[in-house]
Amino acid sequence: MGKQIRADYEQILMFPPSVEDWVAKDHPARFIRDFVDSLDLSELGIEVPDSDTGRPPYAPDLLLKVWLFGYFNRIRSTRKLEKGCLENMGLIWLTGMNAPDHNSLWRFFKANKKSLRHLFRQSIRVALKADLIGLALHAVDGTKIQAVSSNDKARGREHLERFLESVSERLDRTIADAMTEIERAEREETGEYRLPQSMQDGLKRKQRIQEALKELDESDKKSVHPSEPEARFMKNRRTKDLSYNAQAVADQKSGLIVAADVVTDGADNGQLVPMLDKVKENLGAVAEENVADGGYFSSGQIGLAHEREYGILIGKSSGEIVSERGADEDLYHRSRFVFDQERDCFICPEGRLLPFHQRKINGKNHNEVRRYHCKDFLTCPNRWKCSKSKNGRLIDLSVYEAALERHRSKREKPENKERLKTRKKIIEPPFAWIKSALSFRRWTVAGIDNVKAQWDLICTTINLRKLYHHWVSGEVAFT
Questions:
Q1: Ranges for the Transposase DDE domain (predicted)?
Q2: Using CA atoms, how far apart are residues 283 and 260, in angstroms rounded to an integer?
Q3: Structure confidence at residue 203 (pLDDT)
Q4: In degrees rounded to 5, what are phi and psi of residue 236?
Q5: What contacts 195, CB < 8 A, 6 or more positions away?
Q6: What is the pLDDT of residue 161?
Q7: Residue 338 CA to chain centroid, in angstroms?
Q8: How many whole angstroms separate alpha carbon 218 and alpha carbon 230?
């Protein structure tokens, strides 16, 4: 039996170890270093701290490398990143054995959360330079991700108002005590008097409750979380949780994410054009065709996309599917009403006219429609077969009806039906990577600005993971 290999803790090295030799040539840490070193951080708006006194600050490129490598390896907690800088060879190598503490890492994230959006664009530009991104077919989709705040602490208006009243009463007593102390200090000339901590905390608490009540006033929410009023209850498969709606656009050719955003609206039907606008901002153009599921169907969005000459294919909405059911048996189905453009009216199956009544704005997306109203419903013998409304039959016609009809006709073509079928193959893998490979199923930061920054980091990580394989093969170089 040969001699077993054991650690020799008393071994003395003739030459000092070289940090450069600690990781392999194709190690992801080298890829992260090359990517960050290729960036002009000041141009991206990432703060470069400068201090003439005290301990020198950690360089922003070092902290950025730590964050990117951490996300690359599913390490997102600042304390775990701090620990990793002492134990993980990749992080030890990246930092050159300079281990930043969790406070330094968090301050960097907080100071640069808006600049991290530019970092996501840089990952796209690297792919563009390497000719990896195609502009033939893109897919748009969204996924609900649970907020860091607890569902249990969300409160309704009545509870918040009682809480506000209680906080205000305690704050008034604290202010009265503070004023008495200030007057006493003034008389006795004892010097500076600072606002008590209890009063500072009370003011912050009162402000958060007022913001939560304002959020209720400006939305259709029934309850909000006082510490995170922007989060909304959204349906996540079988449950409804405080969440944010994370949006993404993926490229068919490369699988890369080419646009990303986070919104507080639980519905997707107002996000199509905004996401395509972001694609154009990032790539300089949109794909020839952009596919989305029926949740993105909106007359206003389809009309706006047509005006901007965006190629879109949207699956049938639930409203369309319901409307199509029973069309053959229903003698007064919407499809049986004929629009007379010259007279600007609809003609019902009985030959009666439904003239123009008014313009109306529907829904959160402010879809504008022209409403037509039957004037003869009181004398019509079939009025109750036609409509259950006591006011008679109403028909809404979108101001973008021509664009809607063109889209429906386009959607029925066989080649476009096949494109719609490819939607899941394009957009679902990035979401699967995010939730399974990166184990990211819940935000670890609170507030819409922090959440947007984290989503950009996540999407940047997905892109870097794909670009890494091209870097190893020599297709991507940072020069």
A1: 347-467
A2: 13
A3: 54
A4: -115, 95
A5: 178
A6: 46
A7: 42
A8: 11
Place of tokens 């006082």: 226
According to the model, what pLDDT value does residue 56 have?
82
Distance CA 311, CA 407 (A): 10
DSSP-derived pairing of the beta strands 367-373 and 338-340: unpaired
pLDDT at 141: 95
The tokens for 217 are 């006033």
Give the separation between CA 107 and CA 60, rounded to whole angstroms. Answer: 11
Residue with tokens 């949006």: 247
Q: What is the 3-state secondary structure (H, E, C) of the chain?
A: CCCCCCCCCCCCCCCCCCHHHCCCCCCHHHHHHHHHHCCCHHHHCCCCCCCCCCCCCCCHHHHHHHHHHHHHCCCCCHHHHHHHHHHCHHHHHHHCCCCCCHHHHHHHHHHCCCCHHHHHHHHHHHHHHCCCCCCCEEEEEEEEEECCCCHHHCEEHHHHHHHHHHHHHHHHHHHHHHHHHHHHHHHHCCCCCCCCHHHHHHHHHHHHHHHHHHHHHHCCCCEEECCECCCEEEEECCEEEEEEEEEEEEECCCCCEEEEEEECCCCCCCCHHHHHHHHHHHHCCCCCEEEECHHHCCHHHHHHHHHCCCCEEECCCHHHHHHHCCCCCCCCCHHHCEEECCCCEEECCCCCEEEEEEEEEECCCCEEEEEEECCCCCCCCCHHHHCCCCCCCEEEEECCHHHHHHHHHHHCCHHHHHHHHCHHHHHHHHHHHHHHHCCCCECCCCCHHHHHHHHHHHHHHHHHHHHHHHHHCCCCCCC
